[in-house]
């Protein structure tokens, strides 16, 4: 009421909600326009309604050029019709899809994307729009390809290395089996190369190896495969023969190629080669077995006088009898409890902390003394005794951990799991029973080490078995990593927490550039895939310093401690804490 008795009416509206909505709209618009991912909104038929600036930067299309167009204009032709059917089915069933996909830029270039698509629904549950977000992963793919090349090729000669050989050998066996052909596996070791290295130095030796590699490749046929597996050793995979003798002309050419005069820095150098040969399918079907046979035959060739080739004789009665005798002796050793476990510590050389130990089996032979596993494990590799012995190891480790725990020592312990044991029908049940027997031992303290070569035999089954164990609290490591690596895809699918760099690479990495490149590659892979990494075979502080510089802190080897009996480990752990030598 005013002073002159006139009334004044005012209508007030609370616009707080409108202001809040306006702020949210501005925020959403800002996120849309400034997002580092390309964003595309389409209707239910795939017609483009809106895109952001990053979309234009990646695709090359302006907003005006694509709005109203169908998203099919980006189809690369790299994916099959079934791929897209699965994509749309997933979106329909789950409302979300994410995968790598190839797309096409405005200039026609095909490039890889990491793309995620979300479906939007109305109040009735009907799909009305799709929101696609993507990033250009061209650089990541190039880096991955570079890592794959490093992991699969010898840095000196550029030849495939042992890792790629394992993959190629498996492929060749399948190919020759399919076509009913014979495959020859040739193991080459240069004669006289050490003299060249010692006389002229490693630089000249490296030049010589590069030249010999080229000569050996020229001696092969199209489709043959040559790899360098270390030092002066090469392996050739020769396929598609009708008769065993058909491979001999190729072997003769390799002998001639390896004996050619090579000029390095004005010096005329010459070596030769001894070649061991084994045949598929005559001598077996297992790649590792065939490689061992070829290696054995190579030494027979050297014994014959070198500069020749020697075929493996699988029918050797003496070898067969020796195996039978060995199996019987191992069976008796199991019954007589002659096997014992030694433990090798694992330490963090950056902090000085003991982080675990590896259980290593030994045979306390009544007449031959303490035998290393290399003496007896290969004999039972594919025998049921390997499972029996493997189960004993797990049970013994858990028992020992409980003893240590009573002594106030609690550390993780890793055990090696063989392929036969891992894929055995009772593996999961045995692990569960063993853990139940020792309930005071936390499952995460038990680390199962599996060879990557055995893990790759049946990737789906191995992955399922590993996940079942992880559900129980166990952890996994990929042992001897780098010796049989086949594909980064397999590493992504195996839920191993740790990669273990094989000692063959660590031991010589200070003098062998190829081994150092592999060590670096494995550490890089561990970082990319967010896995831990440990190096075995650390023999000197120089090895430790190099690994520290490469960001690998967890190590084991003779430079730290030799494997020791279980009752010595607690005292060793105490004295190690007082030893500052290895701390960084």
UniProtKB/TrEMBL annotation:
InterPro entries: Biofilm_reg_signaling, EAL_dom, EAL_sf, GGDEF_dom, Nucleotide_cyclase, PAS, PAS-assoc_C, PAS-like_dom_sf. It comes from the Bacteria. PROSITE patterns: EAL (PS50883), GGDEF (PS50887), PAC (PS50113), PAS (PS50112). Residues 323-577 form the EAL domain. Signal peptide: none annotated. Its cofactor is Mg(2+). Residues 97-149 form the PAC domain. Residues 24-70 form the PAS domain. Residues 181-314 form the GGDEF domain. One of its GO terms (molecular function) is catalytic activity. NCBIfam families: GGDEF, sensory_box. This is EAL domain-containing protein.
